[in-house]
Specification:
This protein has 7 helices and 10 strands. The protein is α+β, with helices and mostly antiparallel strands. Strands 1-2-3-10-4-9-8-7-6-5 form a 10-stranded mixed sheet, sandwiched between helices.
Length: about 230
């Protein structure tokens, strides 16, 4: 396993950041020790014990775990009447989206790292949603109430029949009212014809897990995430 510079994260955190050169990690992947100073991060399927052992021996620190989910088929849009409306995001709504993203992800794994201040972590979510709005292979769906964005869903097209949910956020004051489920189900309206939906979520995010199981998603893998701040 060799490392490449994660330019996106490097620019945000303002230190060199590295990730594996391949997203596909097998139990035979060879771990090459860090060669440059910087922040190294890797996701490893939990079943690949030898790679995990090598990471621990190299003093990588475990800091999160993700469930990977897939739904075969489409989510049904119930077309229920709500006090809020759905629509595709426009570029002039970006600041509202960024503010909502920062409010919604205060429990994400990066905030738990003492090596970065929270202002830099806020920039991860601000940049992520800005990139999603600009990306021609992603769409961002927003839920609105009285002109205010109270939730959004970022969806990436993977192939002709597969999409991935890469970001789902709802305002802290509009939770437990079915908003996240409505956003998920809206994929059949805004992205009809796709027969596979994929996503990842933290294993400690019980509200999200309950929603995905309720919607029929199946857990297809578990990944452990390790990091190392390496200084020569």
């Amino acid at each position: 396993m060799t490392w490449k510079n994660d330019l996106w994260l490097s620019n945000i955190l303002e230190i060199p950041c590295f990730k594996p050169t391949t997203e596909i990690i097998s139990d035979s992947s060879n771990l090459i020790s860090p060669a440059l100073s910087g922040f190294y991060q890797v996701k490893v399927p939990i079943k690949f014990h030898s790679v995990i052992s090598k990471l621990i021996l190299e003093k990588f620190i475990f800091f999160d775990s993700h469930f990977c989910f897939e739904l075969k088929g489409q989510l049904t849009n119930r077309n229920e009447s709500y006090i809020y409306t759905l629509g595709l995001v426009e570029k002039n709504q970006l600041r509202s989206l960024q503010s909502l993203a920062i409010q919604s992800f205060t429990n994400s794994r990066y905030y738990a790292l003492s090596v970065f201040n929270h202002d830099r972590i806020d920039r991860i979510w601000s940049t992520w949603i800005a990139d999603a709005v600009e990306d021609t292979e992603r769409i961002v769906i927003s839920a609105n109430k009285n002109g205010e964005i109270i939730g959004f869903l970022s969806v990436k097209v993977l192939s002709s029949n597969s999409i991935e949910i890469d970001l789902l956020a709802t305002s802290p004051i509009y939770r437990r009212i079915g908003l996240a489920e409505m956003l998920m189900r809206s994929t059949s309206t805004f992205l009809p014809g796709y027969t596979s939906i994929k996503l990842e979520t933290e294993t400690r995010n019980t509200n999200a897990l309950n929603l995905y199981y309720k919607l029929g998603f199946r857990n297809i893998a578990t990944k452990l995430i390790f990091y190392k701040l390496y200084k020569i």
